[in-house]
Amino acid sequence: MQDSSKKLRINGIEMNVLIAGEGPPVLLVHGYPDDHTVWRNQIPALLAAGYQVIAPDTRGCGDSEILPKVADYRIDNLVADLVALLDLLQIDKVRLVGHDWGAVIGWKLALQHPKRVERYIAVSVGHPAAYAAAGLAQKIRGYYVLLIQLRGIIEWLCRAGDWFLFRQLTRYPAGFPHWRERQSRPGRLTAGMNYYRANLRMLFAQDRRHAQVPVSGIWSSGDIFLTQEQMILSAKLVDAPWRYTRIEGANHWVQLTAPDVLNAVLLDYLR
């Protein structure tokens, strides 16, 4: 896939955004520690199916601008970035796909601006209230959120020994070393971790607003960070058609470890 991303001034920051194709717009929102290239297996399939793809690097990630304060990464700012991006592109309503932190941002976008979302595909992460209510098993799987609060210390530990701890914690798919080069650049590791620091309370709070748009939840059986329960519980928090898909064998990065399966699910639901 040839990258045709460009820099746009969005919500007061410089955001790197891939925009390709013509047709109904699909907004792809990545998670941590990724950027828009994590969708490299999905973008060609979406373009071939006749969609326009919009895939930004969210603030602080990829080639988008790094902001200096932890508070700059609060969820309301992340949502405002996407709304401003749609406004700039003069897109009233979009098909939305989010993974990991991108899924968290996607849920909040759908909850706060339902008129801007035609339908939403949440990959890996369920409704924020479902995540908070998923019980002890989910709290245990989310232990890394607390480790990330050790500012400065965890950054040093993650880089030590050729990123040994980071590789052990994330179990990032072998053969996809792109993250290491990106996270090694000055400020990028801290910027990504600031998502967790700025929104720690949100990860455990009960935001019980119901989604008013159709939602497809996707969870992969090899995900070591998220339980199936937090995705299934999301059904009770969607006041619109809900669909759940379990993908067997793939780990948390289902885009990379089961791309053909995910693409089939995405295209079926987007139609």
Give an overview of the whole structure.
- The chain is built from 13 helices and eight strands.
- With 271 residues, the chain is α/β, with parallel strands linked by helices.
- It has a single domain (5-270), classed as Rossmann fold, CATH 3.40.50.1820.
- Strands 1-2-4-3-5-6-7-8 form an eight-stranded mixed beta sheet, with helices on both faces.
- Helix 2 crosses helix 3 (101-112).
- The two termini are 23 Å apart.
Rg over alpha carbons? 17 Å
What is the strand arrangement across the widest sheet?
A: 1-2-4-3-5-6-7-8
Q: What pattern of helices and strands is seen along the backbone? A: EEEHEHEHEHHHHHHHEHEHH
Indicate the proportion of strand residues: 15-25%
Q: What's the level 1 CATH class?
A: Alpha Beta
Compute the average pLDDT.
94
The percent of residues in helical segments reads 40-55%
Tally of strands:
8
What is the CATH third-level topology name?
Rossmann fold
Q: What overall geometry do the principal axes of the alpha carbons give? A: globular
CATH superfamily: Alpha/Beta hydrolase fold, catalytic domain
- Note the main sheet: 8 strands, mixed
Q: Uncertain runs with pLDDT below 50, 5 residues or more? A: none
Please give the count of helices.
13
